[in-house]
Amino acid sequence: MTEKTALTPATHTTPPAKFSHGVRKGNLLQVAGQVGFLPAAEGQAPTPAGPTLREQTLQTLANVKAILEEGGASWDDAMMIRVYLTDVAHFAELNEIYDAYFEQQGLKEAPAARTTVYVGLPPGLLIEIDALAVLS
Fold first, then answer.
1. First vs last C-alpha separation in the chain
2. How much is the pLDDT for 107?
């Protein structure tokens, strides 16, 4: 049976509860919900990339990508991306940022499926993203 491996890139802090930033088992890699925290700095609390949706979205995508890469995957391996927004008014702006980001990534495959829902997050956080990847 294939072993399950927890993934925490050097850029990430230890999770605040008993969960993993990512888990790989066989050819499946699940990235837990990530937010727009800047890379971890020892002895400092997690800090959001900035107050804007653009800043937080780009950092959140970078955080998801770091976990994908830690598990041997890339955006091309992503099958499903789930986006959690705190404000429905951010939907159009999110789509612009999202489309531009993935265009810059130069994806070779078809884009991943995506779901967007609206949730409550801790104060100051505007977006959370998770992903499921299947490695070939």
1. 18
2. 79
Identify the pLDDT of residue 50. 96
Residues paired with 113 in a beta bridge: 80
Q: What is the pTM of this model?
A: 0.94
Parts of the chain with a pLDDT under 50: none
Closest CA to 15 of 1, 30, 34: 34
Contacts of 75 (CB under 8 A, 6+ apart): 65, 68, 102, 105, 107, 112
What are the structure tokens assigned to 27, written together? Answer: 């050819």
Distance of CA 3 to the CA centre of its chain: 23
What is the structure's pLDDT at 2?
A: 83
Residues 6+ apart with CB under 8 A from 22: 6, 7, 8, 29, 30, 31, 32, 67, 68, 70, 71
Q: 104 CB contacts (<8 Å, ≥6 apart)?
A: none
Beta strands 28-34 and 127-134, pairing class? antiparallel
Measured CA to CA in angstroms, residue 61 lies from 35, 43, 64, 94 at distances of: 8, 24, 5, 12
